[in-house]
Write a structure and sequence with these properties.
The structure holds 2 protein chains of 2 kinds.
Chain A (H helix, E strand, L loop, with lengths): L3 H21 L3 H23 L7 H31 L13
Helix pairs in contact in A: 1-2, 2-3
Chain B lengths: L1 H23 L3 H21 L3 H25 L2 H8 L11 H21 L5 H9 L10 H9 L3 H21 L7
Helix pairs in contact in B: 1-2, 2-3
Classes of the chains: A mainly alpha, B mainly alpha.
């Protein structure tokens, strides 16, 4: 079978790509995609460990919870991005530097 | 068993390659569509980890829901965002991105060392689970068990997360509503 460390290594690599996107990108939507990548790496870890819990399915159940949480995060974040765009006419996070009254 | 390994490496390569393309692409729409490929490859990896229900949920929620939502926002937020991205210089390695690359690579090195030292294949509880036969086998059906567990041991987190999802969706609808007057 596929060993546990293969899954963990892959998810570490995905997490680092997500981290790079969050730090480097100048667009809120791309930062959001980076966050989604990091969340997916975490879910991959949950699922890989969940293989060793047949009775309680804890890994898979919490992977499901994490997916639902990601959906909630995305919905709210996209609504905020739309609002920010309406107010500032840009979604570059480094250009948004004053409070809207 | 050999075929499973080959499938795993193919899917891992697809996931990593498309994720790198998403991170490197200058074109936002292209990177969003490439993110589809990453998510599908990850769903395949969940199947290889014997979590077929999570894989289906991943496809339904991520590919069907979240990505369409991202595309919607992109379309609604107008042309200026696209122009702003195109204006960046198309050098292969942008010097502004260097700190982020260094950070990501160093973080990966730290994770790699931690993985080496943790020795995950020889964990105690994994050994116990294997000895007791508490391991998901490829020929078993887990969905029934997941359903029973979701309604018994994990009932409280299930209810909490359903309320949280409802709050988040109402909040999103409220935030993205157009201001009537003022």
């Amino acid at each position: 079978m596929i060993s546990l460390s293969d899954f963990l290594l892959l998810s570490a690599a995905l997490f680092c790509i997500g981290l790079y996107m969050v730090v480097a990108k100048r667009n809120a939507i791309q930062i959001l995609i980076g966050i989604e990548l990091m969340l997916n790496a975490a879910i991959l870890n949950l699922v890989a460990f969940g293989k060793y819990d047949k009775l309680n399915n804890s890994g898979q159940v919490f992977a499901l919870f994490a997916i639902v949480l990601a959906a909630a995060v995305t919905a709210v974040a996209l609504a905020i991005i739309l609002n920010v765009y309406r107010q500032y006419k840009t979604i570059d996070p480094s250009k948004i530097n004053n409070l809207g009254d | 068993m050999m075929l499973v390994k080959i499938m795993f490496y193919i899917l891992a390569a697809v996931a990593l390659g498309s994720a790198l393309f998403v991170a490197a692409s200058k074109n936002l729409v292209r990177s969003v569509f490439m993110f589809f490929v990453t998510l599908f490859a990850l769903a395949g990896l969940y199947v290889l980890a014997l979590a077929d229900f999570v894989a289906i949920t991943q496809i339904v929620i991520y590919v069907g829901g979240i990505l369409v939502l991202i595309l919607f926002t992109f379309m609604l937020s107008g042309r200026e965002t696209l122009d702003a991205i195109q204006q960046q210089k198309s050098k292969l390695i942008n010097l502004n991105k260097l700190p982020a690359i260094v950070l990501a690579v160093l973080f990966f090195v730290v994770m790699f060392i931690v993985l080496r030292q943790a020795d995950v294949n020889e964990l105690d509880w994994v050994k116990v689970a294997v000895a007791e036969g508490n391991v998901i086998k490829p020929d078993g059906i887990q969905i029934e068990n997941i359903g029973v567990n979701l309604m018994t041991s994990y009932l409280l987190p299930f209810e909490v997360i359903s309320i949280l999802l409802m709050i988040a969706l109402i909040g999103a609808a409220h935030l993205s509503r157009k201001e009537q007057e003022a």
